[in-house]
Specification:
The protein is mainly beta. The protein has a single domain, classed as SOS response associated peptidase-like (hypothetical protein yedk fold). It has four helices and 16 strands. The strands form three sheets. Strands 2, 4, 5, 8, 9, 12, 13, 14 and 15 form a nine-stranded mixed sheet that branches. A hairpin with a 3-residue loop joins β12 and β13. The longest helix is centred in the first third of the chain and has 8 residues. The chain starts with a strand and ends with a strand.
Length: 201
């Protein structure tokens, strides 16, 4: 499950690289994107700023009263057709521009950040879905799938990394054609292990 990624480009550069209109000009976002924080996505032919994570309403176990929603940042491919995700998958698929994504690796309590990226690419796209929410406005979530043989020892899931030739197929084709793209990445990824604690901000 990916709960941290890096995105180093401004919206104008994302728009240029993805052939999209820049509807997020002047938007501020951190280079490191954490759950619940703003990031850039390419949706409906535009670069837009949205919050990362679909809000999942929660109630207190002690009081039974509503508490702050949880940001659900990842969408498993085998759950895309369930009620929580289906409408967004069918009608609102997007591209998430990424420089690298991180996974937590190591023993619980001392996990460190391991970064994965596509060699030679300034930015690549992860498959995403989005919707409007009452809580946080426009929000997005990453689609995940089983890992590759290369990444299986890091985590048992990975984001759906899209080849450039499949961008339009993900966003504009039928749900059945898009679902066929929910598979482990077919090429070799660059892996950089670090000593940075996973919980570090």
């Amino acid at each position: 499950m990916c709960n941290l990624y890096r995105m180093t480009k401004a919206s104008a550069e994302v728009a240029r690289l993805f052939g999209a209109a820049d509807a997020a000009a002047g938007a501020n976002h951190s280079e490191l994107i954490f759950p619940g924080y703003p990031g850039l996505v390419v949706a409906q032919g535009e670069v837009r700023q949205m919050n990362w994570g679909f809000p999942l309403r929660q109630v207190s176990k002690k009081t039974g009263k509503p508490i702050k929603p949880k940001a659900v940042t990842n969408t498993r491919d085998d759950r895309l057709h369930t009620a929580f995700w289906k409408d967004s998958f069918v009608h609102r698929r997007c591209l998430i521009p990424v420089s690298a994504f991180a996974e937590a690796e190591g023993d619980y309590g001392s996990m460190t950040r391991t970064w994965l990226s596509v060699p030679g690419e300034e930015l690549f796209a992860i498959a995403g879905i989005w919707r409007e929410s009452e809580e946080w406005g426009a929000v997005y979530s990453m689609v995940t799938c089983p890992p590759t043989a290369q990444t299986a020892d890091i985590h048992d899931r990975m984001p759906v990394v899209l080849n450039a030739a499949d961008h339009a197929r993900w966003t504009d084709s039928t749900p059945e054609q898009a679902f066929a793209l929910c598979r482990p990445y077919s090429e070799v990824l660059s892996i950089k292990r670090t000593a940075v604690p996973w919980i570090s901000r």
